[in-house]
Amino acid sequence: MTLFRLAFPFMLLNSSLVLCPAITAQPSITEKELVRRTQELYDSIVSGNQEPWKKYFADDCTFSDEKGRTFDKTKLVADITPLPNGYSGTIKIENVISRIIGDTAVLSYDANEAETIFGQELHARYHITDTWLQRNGQWQIIASQAHRYYEDPRAAAPSQLLNYQPSTYVGIYELAPGQTRTVTVDNGKLFVERNGKKEELLPESSDLFFRKGVEGRILFHHDTNGKVDSLIDRRNNEDVVWKKLK
């Protein structure tokens, strides 16, 4: 009986040592702190301050930007230089999602860029995912990848279109036997239709068009006599040519 009374507090003590850490354990870094550090990185770009990039990116990190380029830390830090005279801007973080598990944290977010070039404003939106790793008590980014959201270009105003005559593009264009596209005009607007799907062709210039929400461009080629003889579907700088039938 005496042994039981002595053993019981001992068992409680040991069980508390096991259970308490599971109950009270907290992440060693928070989403708020990750966001603060990330915003610090982007705030340093305008002045070309490389110190946050040296501090928060691991020596063995990999960084892939929206242009498809991949950098190690040396190249990444070297790319941080002050904006030229006449340029200014900000990048703000929004729509943050985080996952923090043990010594690894993933931060996914939108980066909204506003840039002013000699008084003219430009805007761009990016989505970026950073993977943070805790090693030797220090949290650093081990991998980062960015892509840019697609934005439609601005359609040209009628005054910007030299000798623009939509009717000259009207016709049927063939990619292969049985594979055709039809270009029509409706109330002065140009449309392309294939397999029952009709889309407006919005002009960037007299011979260069885009469709809302679709990457790539539609061009029309003229023969030596100035007549349209083909439609060019340009995707990522590669062309798919549709020959005009009539």
Description of the structure:
This protein is of the alpha+beta class. It folds into two domains: 118 residues, Roll (Nuclear Transport Factor 2, Chain: A); 87 residues, Lipocalin (Beta Barrel). The chain has four helices and 14 strands. The chain is elongated. 13% of the residues are buried. The N terminus is likely disordered.
Q: What is the number of strand segments?
A: 14
What structural category characterises the helix and strand content? alpha+beta
CATH topology of the largest domain: Nuclear Transport Factor 2, Chain: A
CATH architecture of the largest domain: Roll
Tell me the strand percentage band.
Answer: over 45%
Question: Total number of helical segments?
Answer: 4
Q: Would you tell me the overall average pLDDT?
A: 89
Q: Percent range for helical residues?
A: 10-25%
Main sheet summary = 8 strands, antiparallel, barrel
Low-confidence stretches: 1-24
Q: How big is the Rg?
A: 29 Å
The strand line-up of the biggest sheet is: 7-8-9-10-11-12-13-14
Number of domains: 2
Order of helices and strands: HHHEEHEEEEEEEEEEEE
CATH class of the largest domain: Alpha Beta
- CA-CA gap between termini: 105 Å
Oligomer: single chain
What is the molecular shape?
elongated
